[in-house]
Amino acid sequence: MNEAASSADTVAAPRPVAGEGETGGVDYSDPDVTLGAHEDRWAWRARLRRHPATHLAWRSAVGVVGSVVTVGGLIMVPAPGPGWAVVILGLVILASEFEFAQRWLDFVKGYVHRWNRWVMTQPLWLRCAIGFAALLLVWGALWLTFVLFGLPGWTPDWAAQQLARLPGLD
User: Fold this and answer.
1) Whole-number Å distance between alpha carbons of 51 and 67
2) Quick one: 98 and 131 in the same domain?
3) Do 144 and 83 lie in a common domain?
4) Does residue 18 carry a pLDDT above 70?
5) CA atoms 60, 62, 64, 67: torsion sign
6) Where are the transmembrane segments (predicted)?
7) Is residue 91 located within the same domain as residue 160?
8) Which string of b and e fits 32-64 if b means at least 16 CB within 10 Å?
9) Domain boundaries, position 127
10) What does the alpha-carbon distance between residue 95 and residue 70 come to, in Å, rounded to a whole number?
11) Is the Cβ–Cβ distance between 113 and 121 less than 8 Å?
12) Beta carbons of 99 and 32 less than 8 angstroms apart
């Protein structure tokens, strides 16, 4: 294999932004809304990006799937469950192709990292109180969901009998 062919399959990683530190973010100084072939770490995806037709098809597929997952997660946020995790998964999918989503994902990761760092510096009693408050929030969301929509049909009889003792769930 000649040197030109081997260098075509080698792709440079995105340049870290100065001052990003532990996140090692992407350089957003270019005006493109999508990542270019030279910014892709995976050779197979970089080959897709070199051809306009395959790049458009790939970009469209990633955009549709990422948008559906993100919107589905946003719909799930008020209900108990992994709503925010699904939103972040949708951003991860979109960020694999679109720079705007990569910026949003970096923003979210920065806030989650700062929140985590702050919580871990607090005394144990406060960390336990935060965990208990989160548990109460999930329980309250479950209760409100059951009051508004009733118990799901797949709820086992023993669980339905216990849940029926809660106020508002007769």
Assistant:
1) 24
2) no
3) no
4) no
5) negative
6) 56-77, 83-101, 124-149
7) no
8) eebbebebbeeeebbbbbeeeeebeebbeebbe
9) 123-170
10) 12
11) no
12) yes
